[in-house]
Design goal:
Chain lengths: 508, 360
């Protein structure tokens, strides 16, 4: 059997943790090979070893049958390995063409010479059906096109082994279908694709084989066709996972949050980031704001939590006007906020786990007296939450938050925000980048809030999530609410049309 | 032995010691090139530092260390909260002038508390001087490095001017001496005979302990550090990051101002001249090295300050030999400079230890 890449017996040890434990991973030529695993299962570590960012303590890597030593990413690139990162590595004020040639710029007489490059890019774009506008500026084009630019970059460099790191997280349903088509196309042209993902449906849809990692070990490599989604998830998590969440009948209460005619100025462009938006959230409901990334969700949440100034309109919470109140006042009044970017807002990475768990409450009687921190209480509080929310870390309460895996960092935030016993929980993409086990857990927590008569405002890009757990959906597009739908009756396609702005209804 | 790579004290300590050793190596090289016959005796003198002069030398080490610890504390405290207070020099000058002015002119005060008031004035003046870059940083996002460098020069020339119109002694062409407000000695000169020691060192140690308690034990320190590590997360948690930025700058400035007071309220200290070189006030800049060597930890800064004092006194004893004073300054500077490498070595040591542990 011909393997393009063979990673044999790869062992990578970090202090206190074996990230990769004798992992075997073999990719055939021309196949789409999915790499599946929970957060912290060792997927990123394994790919970083392949890409030359880490050095494995043990094991060998073979590319096209020959043993290679990949000391740094340049060697990986020379071997024809390319990667589309989850967060794109593009220069925002450069054109598409300039981004594609960046690093391998064609030079003639000491000057940038793009004519041949343009021809080559257009040729590749035609061959693989990768529609792009070579002269468009990156920041003006859609996320989907940005991703195509990333793919073009790899193809322009004639890479034969393409790694896609959770490529669908930022796309609309229509764009995902498009990407799947492109991936199949690439594979049929003889490229080998490694597809890192948490989403089992996508693996079923596009991959040929899948390798499942769990806790740093390779559990199995199986044929996708002969394996069911349930079997895959069981292998990944190590237990059965319930997919369709059982929800109790809704017990709708009074409105807790009322937003009227809200306008928020954008700091990026001259249009309003939030343009005359109004909606209500009731006790006992999960209201979901669906939409493609960058349509004003961030500004809406900032306005609701007090992180940004409101231009006009009012926000009423529990009957009080809180439009101009401080972040701290709102937080004490019972608004919790699971932020979109856990590293930027959610955590102080240089603090310990225990210190992060009191970020919203350190000033309360429980944790301080006369301005002095009560370390015993802080540690006990942390230990209790670690147990209750199953937060895993190297050194318990004293672990540096930076060293924890993404999933456990997210659990830390969720533990902190839910422990505050909020009346209104604003959760922004709470499951982004998490595995099914963790997602299931977080969804159950959100539903528990709802069943206890609390309100949840969920901002999410994941259609599955939107459809599964919300009671009501409003769709945001370019800072405006363009539709309100019932998740029980709406189809994914219809929702996708609203999100892409091609369908709208008047919502008051 | 098992988890050496996680033991912070071992790593930080060995990183500092290693960089100091390299500093000594380099200064030996300087001596070897410039004055080979005296290179060995020169090196041993430098290594012996304060011990060259017995109790007198040790007393002088502690005396020298006082203001250095305080400026180190100024820089280190700001570092911990995410600010780079390169303006410690300016705050030091302003604090020093204020102390001398109060010492010379406020003779209406009872003599017992004169020095306390003078030090307090230095403390406050330094803080006020740092308030300006602090406010600019917090509310206008002006880079504190640039604004505080400018404040250094403004401080220097302002003090020159103020000396001339308030406390100038034209007969000696220098400022009047604040003899009435000199820091008390409390019999320390009986232990450290013939040395210049006074309570300055103990004030510095007290301040370091206070800084440590603020940073590590209080909610205020928790807020300050949160702002320093991640301003966005602090704002998300409802912490007033703007207020914390200028407050942190002010506290840092208070330490630097106090350093100026401690330095100039001593009998054997320097006196104010009209000069226009910031380098004539090296303590502020030494503070940066001390903060780095002490890894911004207030307790570490006490030891770093004593070490720098030790080297400076060692340099003083080098004058016994026919070694040019410029070379002495150069050697001391090399050691201080290289001691700032400890940050770099810390990462290396962790790396090496981990490899070593992984092998076992």
């Amino acid at each position: 059997m011909d393997y393009v890449i063979e990673m044999l017996n790869i062992t990578k040890i970090f202090p206190g943790i074996v990230a990769n434990d004798k992992i075997n991973f073999q990719v055939k030529k021309g196949e789409i090979h999915a790499l599946l695993g929970e957060n912290g299962a060792g997927k990123s570590t394994l790919m970083s070893v392949l890409f030359g960012l880490y050095h494995a303590e043990e094991g060998t890597i073979k590319v096209e049958g020959k043993e290679v030593k990949i000391h740094n990413p340049n060697i990986a690139k020379d071997l024809g390995i390319g990667m589309v990162h989850q967060h794109f590595k593009l220069v925002h004020n450069f054109t598409v063409l300039e981004n594609v040639v960046l690093g391998v710029e064609p030079i003639k007489n000491g000057q940038l010479y793009l004519k041949d490059a343009r021809a080559k890019v257009l040729e590749i774009s035609k061959k693989y059906n990768l529609y792009i506008e070579p002269d468009a500026i990156i920041q003006d084009i859609t996320v989907g096109m940005q991703q195509r630019v990333e793919i073009l970059k790899m193809l322009y460099r004639e890479n034969n082994i393409l790694i896609f790191d959770e490529p669908t997280a930022v796309l609309t349903p229509q764009e995902i279908v498009e990407l799947m088509k492109i991936m199949r196309n690439l594979a049929s042209e003889g490229k080998s694709i490694i597809f890192i993902t948490h989403k089992l449906n996508e693996i079923k849809a596009v991959a040929n084989r899948v390798t499942i990692l769990r806790k740093g070990r390779s559990i199995a490599t199986v044929d996708v066709k002969s394996t069911s989604v349930e079997e895959l998830s069981e292998m990944m998590v190590g237990r059965k996972v319930i997919f369709n969440i059982e929800k109790q009948a809704q017990n709708l209460g009074k409105p807790i949050l009322e937003v009227k005619d809200l306008v928020v100025k954008s700091n990026r462009h001259h249009k309003n980031a939030i343009n005359h938006v109004g909606f209500k959230v009731h006790r006992g409901e999960i209201l979901c704001v669906a939409g493609i990334e960058g349509n004003g969700q961030t500004d809406l949440v900032y306005a609701l939590t007090g992180l940004t100034k409101v231009e006009s309109g009012t926000i009423t919470y529990k009957g009080k006007d809180i439009t101009h109140q401080k972040v701290r006042t709102r937080s004490i009044d019972g608004i919790s906020h699971i932020p979109e970017d856990r590293h930027k807002h959610g955590l102080v990475l240089d603090y310990t786990l225990a210190e992060n768990l009191i970020l919203q409450t350190y000033f309360k009687e429980e944790f301080q007296s006369h301005g002095f921190l009560k370390f015993d209480n802080i540690t006990n509080h942390a230990d209790a939450l670690i147990k209750q929310f199953d937060i895993r870390s190297g050194e318990g309460a004293e672990s540096s938050t930076r060293s924890m895996s993404g999933g456990n960092q997210q659990k830390t935030i969720i533990a902190r925000e839910i422990d505050k016993d909020p009346d209104l929980l604003i959760a922004v993409q709470p499951t982004r980048g998490l595995d099914v086990g963790a997602i299931e857990y977080i969804h159950n927590q959100l539903i528990k809030q709802r069943d206890n008569g609390k309100a949840v405002l969920l901002i999410s890009l994941e259609l599955n999530e939107v459809m599964n757990i919300s009671d009501r959906i409003i769709v945001i597009y370019e800072g405006e609410i363009v539709g309100e739908v019932d998740p029980k009756t709406v189809t994914e396609q219809e929702l996708g049309l609203y999100m892409a702005g091609s369908k709208r209804e008047n919502v008051s | 032995m098992k988890n050496l790579s996680k033991n912070k004290a071992v790593i930080n300590g060995s990183a500092s010691v290693l960089s100091i050793l390299i500093g000594f190596g380099f200064s030996f090289l300087v001596l070897l090139i410039s004055n080979a016959p005296y290179s060995f005796v020169g090196l041993t003198t430098l290594l012996l530092g304060g011990f060259n002069g017995g109790m007198q030398g040790i007393g002088n080490v502690l005396y020298t260390a006082g203001p250095i610890i305080l400026t180190g504390l100024a820089v280190g405290f700001a570092f911990k909260t995410g600010l780079f207070n390169i303006g410690a020099t300016g705050q030091f000058i302003i604090g020093a002038f204020t102390a001398v002015y109060v010492g010379v002119r406020w003779t209406f005060l009872p003599v017992e508390i004169h020095w306390v008031v003078a030090l307090l004035a230095a403390f406050i003046a330094g803080g006020l001087w740092a308030l300006i870059p602090g406010i600019l940083k917090a509310y206008r996002n002006v880079n504190e490095v640039i604004s505080s460098i400018i404040m250094n020069y403004i401080g220097l020339y302002l003090v020159n001017y103020m000396i001339k119109i308030t406390i100038f002694d034209p007969t000696k062409n220098q400022a009047l001496m604040p003899t009435r407000a000199y820091l008390p000695v409390y019999g320390l000169d009986k232990i450290f005979t013939n040395s210049s020691i006074n309570v300055g060192f103990f004030i510095a140690v007290l301040m370091a302990i206070i800084a440590y308690i603020i940073l590590e034990k209080t909610t205020f320190g928790y807020e300050l550090k949160a702002c320093g590590f991640n301003r966005f997360a602090a704002e998300y948690a409802g912490i007033n990051s703007k207020r914390n930025i200028w407050l942190s700058m002010v506290i840092s400035g208070c330490f630097a101002g106090l350093a100026g007071g401690v330095m100039y309220l001593a009998g054997s200290a320097r006196y104010f001249e009209i000069i226009d070189l910031l380098l004539q006030y090296p303590e502020g800049f030494t503070g940066i090295s001390v903060a780095l060597l002490g890894l911004s930890n207030p307790i570490g800064i006490i030891f770093a300050g004593i070490f720098i004092g030790y080297i400076k006194i060692g340099g003083f004893y080098l004058q016994w030999y026919p070694i040019m004073p410029e070379i002495v300054d150069l050697m001391v500077a090399v050691i201080i400079y290289l001691s700032a490498l400890s940050f770099f070595f810390r990462a290396k040591i962790v790396y090496v230890l981990r490899k070593f542990e992984a092998k076992k």
